[in-house]
């Protein structure tokens, strides 16, 4: 580590430990030079880092002061640059445990069968089998009728595209992968929020991309000022994010924040790749707009891609996702041809049969009511029986809880396995070590007497830890 980075780290630690309070003046550059026995250049560079990361601010003619809202900064991870991503074998091992059928999986973000419209799907597949073209190659961009249905529904989201501006994919993960393939080359830098969906790190590693993590801030989401500073410093090619109910922390960015981030992205020519897979699962109000709906798009300007799928709403095994883009779908679709000839034709035909039943909106309404109720029940039970030890971040939508505990997440996973359940440790959701004391819990497992008893046993793990 360079001298100025070490000095910056030392000063951040002192601020975090409370040596300097909010709005308090810190030593001047000359003073810190003498206190830390460093050069003036080292002091300047260290203070530049502290200023960029929101620890301090400068008042002309008066000096440097601790940021007035420092608690929002030190409560989350600091932005970090990673020249390479290594989604190591540990992730695969943990995911195998999370998906173990012998355990009740509270860790995997997969809706349980009870919340899936299985009867309607079976009927739809039977109808699809009557189509003579079911076993032929389909349209290269995906079933035209399915794309037309999705395009009409995007008007609800405030991001209206036509059927020709859509590409059907094998789930949302593939949609994100192709979006990145069409906007980056190996060695480019991508900015991602922290925490974020674990599967994205494996994509970034495979595509050999560099990464800058920008943390979610308390009551802010993604800070526009911090975002712009990081753009100037690291010059990312793409911002990869989830504005609506981010997995795992369930955060919904404000419309003002979305507008600001879109404006900054366009100003610096940053491509946007948005994961909107949980956007339909809002708890209150109306369906939130995706961030890309605020993005000014021209044929030759930076591109935006809205990625989603039916995996969280109809059924994960369908593997029907899509990318919507007003100015980038042509190149994206061209690149998909290098990987496949067409999408899964039988499943697409079955899905469009299901959507024709006009039950999708009713099904979504059912999910929103159920997931909101489950979120409240889980939060109430875990908070009460852990005697307030667990700090649960209230989500605005989706079906996962993001929880801070006094136990290391990886160790907690091993402890939970002993009582027959699995959680997703926080270490999966970021490249830094900041999330090690967090874990994610899937509430769509339900709230049966058996599940309730399992959660009670789980809560006791934290009481035992406190007693020891």
UniProtKB/TrEMBL annotation:
Keywords: Aminotransferase, DNA-binding, Pyridoxal phosphate, Transcription, Transcription regulation, Transferase
One Pfam family, short name: GntR
GO terms, biological process: alpha-amino acid metabolic process
GO molecular function, one term: transaminase activity
Domain HTH gntR-type, chain residue ranges per copy: 1-69
Cofactor: pyridoxal 5'-phosphate
Top-level taxon: Bacteria
Family stated for the protein in its record: In the C-terminal section; belongs to the class-I pyridoxal-phosphate-dependent aminotransferase family.
Official protein name in the record: HTH-type transcriptional regulator NorG
Organism: Leptospira wolbachii serovar Codice str. CDC
């Amino acid at each position: 580590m360079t001298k100025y980075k070490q000095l910056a780290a030392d000063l951040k630690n002192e601020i975090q430990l409370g040596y300097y309070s909010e709005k308090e003046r810190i030593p001047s550059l000359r003073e810190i030079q003498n206190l830390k026995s460093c050069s003036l250049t080292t002091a300047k560079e260290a203070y530049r880092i502290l200023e960029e990361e929101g620890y301090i601010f400068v008042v002309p003619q008066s000096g440097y002061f601790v940021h007035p809202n420092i608690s929002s900064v030190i409560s989350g991870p600091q932005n970090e640059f990673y020249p390479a991503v290594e989604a190591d074998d540990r992730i695969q091992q943990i995911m195998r445990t999370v998906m173990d059928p012998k355990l009740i999986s509270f860790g995997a973000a997969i809706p349980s069968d009870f919340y899936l419209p299985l009867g309607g799907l079976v009927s739809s597949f039977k109808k699809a089998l009557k189509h003579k073209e079911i076993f032929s190659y389909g349209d290269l961009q995906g079933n035209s009728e399915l794309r037309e249905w999705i395009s009409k529904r995007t008007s609800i989201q405030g991001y209206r595209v036509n059927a020709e501006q859509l590409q059907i994919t094998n789930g949302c993960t593939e949609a994100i992968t192709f979006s990145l393939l069409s906007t980056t080359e190996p060695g480019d830098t991508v900015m991602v929020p922290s925490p974020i969906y674990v599967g994205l790190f494996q994509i970034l590693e495979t595509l050999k991309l560099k990464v800058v993590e920008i943390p979610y801030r308390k009551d802010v989401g993604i800070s526009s000022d911090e975002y712009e500073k990081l753009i100037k410093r690291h010059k990312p090619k793409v911002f990869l994010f989830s504005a609506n109910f981010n997995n795992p922390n369930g955060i919904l960015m404000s419309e003002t924040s979305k507008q600001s981030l879109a404006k900054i992205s366009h100003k610096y020519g940053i491509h946007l790749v948005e994961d909107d897979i949980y956007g339909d699962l809002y708890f209150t109000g109306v369906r939130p707009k995706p961030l890309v709906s605020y993005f000014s798009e021209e044929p030759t300007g930076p591109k935006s891609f809205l990625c989603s799928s039916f995996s969280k709403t109809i059924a994960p095994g369908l593997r029907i996702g899509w990318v919507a883009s007003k100015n980038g779908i042509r190149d994206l679709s061209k690149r998909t041809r290098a990987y496949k000839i067409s999408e899964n034709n039988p499943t697409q035909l079955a899905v469009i049969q299901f959507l024709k039943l006009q039950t999708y909106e009713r099904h979504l309404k059912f999910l929103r009511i159920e997931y909101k109720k489950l979120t409240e029940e889980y939060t109430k039970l875990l908070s009460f029986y852990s005697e307030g030890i667990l700090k649960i971040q209230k989500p605005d939508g989706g079906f996962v809880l993001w929880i801070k505990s006094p136990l290391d997440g990886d160790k907690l996973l091993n402890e939970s396995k002993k009582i027959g359940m699995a959680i997703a440790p926080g270490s999966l959701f970021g490249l830094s070590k900041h999330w090690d004391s967090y874990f994610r819990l899937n509430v769509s497992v339900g709230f049966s007497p058996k599940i309730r008893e399992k959660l009670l046993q789980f809560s006791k793990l934290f009481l035992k830890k406190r007693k020891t």
